[in-house]
């Protein structure tokens, strides 16, 4: 089988539930070996896409490929190297973490059983593996779910809202674990509505809105947008008047100790600084302002919230 650059690819993917179109003409590309965030409001279609990828829901139209294999035509072969958690993982709460993994490994064969200790170590549960799952926090159960996925030695892990309900400590543990997994060359595809955490955790992301893909790419590109500059100077009012009408500037406003401007293009920073200095205005700060993923998300999606 030929190795492709993208571990997940969809083209023209569609899904209807009655008259409602849940997913529309979705073209998704997930690169190998990265942490990839799948973002959208509640009801945007994230879980529906995941269920179609895993063969749990039939697509109405379009094509899907996982690890270079067409799905559903070669679903079994594709998913043999995929681990997935859709919603919160379930375990036998009266058994220990290690015992739960032994139960799962029994259905997979001797190779899976030999991976138990390594899986527990990768998710940071080695020291708690012999405690009953009923004593685990939600974050620990999420990590045990990932450990169960690792029994298949997956190239791809698909996690549906893995940060839901986690406290800050649990989120940090999950973030560390994901970095460890991608460091091993695995791909982690996770859906989430916690935008700050996706920005801190993922290398790239896609944004889906009302079933349609509205953006995808590296996080740095998604949050790039138009360049803003924070200018600190000793005569803000004079600086604002001086730059009024400059073709390099889309908008400008005065701040407490200077200006906040949005550039019309990538060029113009040097000429703006030169104009201010030539006019005798002291410039003590000229810093780019990076838009957050949350700001960008709200700009390109159609609503704030919705039905689950």
Task: Provide structural commentary.
This protein has 308 residues and is α/β, with parallel strands linked by helices. It folds into two domains: 6-222, Rossmann fold (3-Layer(aba) Sandwich), CATH 3.40.50; 228-290, Alpha-Beta Plaits (2-Layer Sandwich), CATH 3.30.70. Helix content is 33%, strand content 30%. The protein contains twelve helices and 14 strands. It has helices at residues 46-53, 75-79, 97-106, 110-114, 116-122, 138-150, 168-183, 195-201, 219-222, 236-243, 269-278, 293-300; strands at 6-17, 20-31, 35-39, 61-66, 69-71, 82-85, 156-160, 187-192, 204-209, 212-218, 228-233, 249-255, 258-263, 283-289. Strands 6-7-8-3-9-10 form a six-stranded mixed sheet, sandwiched between helices. It has a four-stranded antiparallel sheet with strand order 2-1-4-5. Helix 6 packs parallel to helix 7. The longest helix has 16 residues, at 168-183.
């Amino acid at each position: 089988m030929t190795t492709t650059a993208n571990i997940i690819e969809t083209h023209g993917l569609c899904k209807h539930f009655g008259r409602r179109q849940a997913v529309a003409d979705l073209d998704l590309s997930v690169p190998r070996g990265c942490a990839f965030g799948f973002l959208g409001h509640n009801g945007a279609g994230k879980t529906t896409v995941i269920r179609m990828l895993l063969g749990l829901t039939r697509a109405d139209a379009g094509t899907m490929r996982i690890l270079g294999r067409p799905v559903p035509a070669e679903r079994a072969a594709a998913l043999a190297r995929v681990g997935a958690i859709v919603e919160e993982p379930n375990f036998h709460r009266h058994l220990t973490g290690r015992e739960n993994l032994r139960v799962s490994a029994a259905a997979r064969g001797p190779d899976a059983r030999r991976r138990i200790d390594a899986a527990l170590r990768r998710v940071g549960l080695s020291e708690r593996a012999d405690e009953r799952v009923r004593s685990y926090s939600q974050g620990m159960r999420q990590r045990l779910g990932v450990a169960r996925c690792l029994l298949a030695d997956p190239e791809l892990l698909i996690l549906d809202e893995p940060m839901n309900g986690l406290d800050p400590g649990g989120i940090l543990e999950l973030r560390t674990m994901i970095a460890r997994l991608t460091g091993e060359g695995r791909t982690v595809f996770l859906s989430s509505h916690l935008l700050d955490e996706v920005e801190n955790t993922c290398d790239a992301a896609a944004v889906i809105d009302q079933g349609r893909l509205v953006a995808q790419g590296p996080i740095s590109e998604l949050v790039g947008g138009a360049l803003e500059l924070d200018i600190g100077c000793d005569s803000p009012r004079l600086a604002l008047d001086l730059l009024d009408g400059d073709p390099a500037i889309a908008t400008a406003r005065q701040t407490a100790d200077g200006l906040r401007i949005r550039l019309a293009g990538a060029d113009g920073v040097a000429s703006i600084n030169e104009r201010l200095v030539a006019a005798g205005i002291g410039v003590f700060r000229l810093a780019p302002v990076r838009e957050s993923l949350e700001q960008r998300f709200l700009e390109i999606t159609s609503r704030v919230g919705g039905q689950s």
